Amino acid sequence: MSRVARSAFAALAAVSIAACSDSPVDNATATPNNLVSANANAPEQVMAGELIVKAVEGASVADIARAHGLAVGQAGYGNAYVVLHGAAGAEHANARALKADSRVVYAEPNYLRQADVDPKLWAFYNPGGLNMKYSSGKNNGLPISASYASVADADEDNIDGYAAGATGTVVVGSIDTGVDFAHAEFKNADGTSRLIAGRDWYSNDNDPSDTNDHGTHTSGTMAGKTVGVAGVAGVAANVRIHVQRVCGQRGCPTTAIVNAIRAAADYGVVAMNLSIGGGSLSQSESDAIAYANGKGAIVIASAGNDGVGTVSCPACDPGAISVASTQWQDKLASYSQWGPGLDIS
């Protein structure tokens, strides 16, 4: 298989789950003590006091931090950026001040993205979408009519033996909540695993095990053996998944996402999936996506599940393929985001 063909094949695997969700995500949740709201008009949160900064080549980060009353934190993967620490609640003000400094290329808050899926994950517990019930209206709680089974939909198109003629091994990246490495969906007949353990950038260790099933759910769609966790058959058995965890109980820090994108590109994946998003533009994410594209890796991300006419970020970046959700009639799902910048549904 040529690299182009393998890339397109891997992209199909990732696109199939980038927009994964079963209901709108409620971002208006209580703010943990170590987080603050990004601004008064948006639900997105930021890591308290943290700033992502890229300095002009040759400039002293320590001098920049000292001039703005900030402390120097950890450098990002490949020294692509450095984290500076300031007062909680002053993230946007500090970023504006840093942007005005001629020694700074860019500065931004460390945004906290969210995983784009209902935490109840009905498909995880209800493989194939069987025994579905209405979730609203006068029929709320009642079983959905069997007549819907006759409606041609995307799930029905995933026929047995799909991609059976593919040869070679394709590695794609999962940048998510991690994956359950013990799950039977990822075990081959000979006992080998379809998963490759990468880094946990959220907890800063080498165990990217799943903490809430979201990454297992999305990865099962890419390379699950059966209907299992995905609710549909996995796209292909010859796909292996390089797993990186970037999300935890608080969400998905931009620093973790940026590190994972760059690390996945360096590992050599042909595509990577991010079913996560937020509302604010991030230069560090944009730079990471450009870096991955330059390495020949396709970056695929969820358009979001807030039902508005704007595409979430990092899917909003021109270098990423943004994916919206559809319902069983292959129409745009009511909760899916859409609008300029949307690439595929």
Outline the biggest β-sheet.
Answer: 7 strands, antiparallel
* Oligomer class: single chain
Helix content: 10-25%
Mean pLDDT over the full residue set: 80
Order of helices and strands: HEEHEEHEHHEEHEEHEEHEE
Alpha-beta content class: alpha/beta
Distance between the termini: 26 Å
How many DSSP H or I helices? 8
CA radius of gyration is 20 Å
Detailed description of the structure:
There is one protein chain. By secondary structure, this protein is α/β, with parallel strands linked by helices. The protein has helices spanning 3-18, 61-67, 91-99, 122-125, 154-157, 214-223, 254-267, 283-294; strands at 35-39, 42-55, 71-75, 82-85, 104-115, 170-176, 195-200, 239-245, 252-253, 271-274, 276-277, 298-302, 320-323. Strands 1, 2, 3, 4, 5, 9 and 11 form a seven-stranded antiparallel beta sheet that branches. It has a six-stranded parallel beta sheet with strand order 7-8-6-10-12-13, sandwiched between helices. Helix 6 links the parallel strand 7 and strand 8 (239-245). Helix 1 (3-18) crosses helix 6 and helix 7 runs parallel beside helix 8. It is globular. The protein starts with a helix and ends in a 22-residue tail after the last strand. Residues 1-13, 21-42, 119-130 and 227-232 have low confidence and may be disordered.
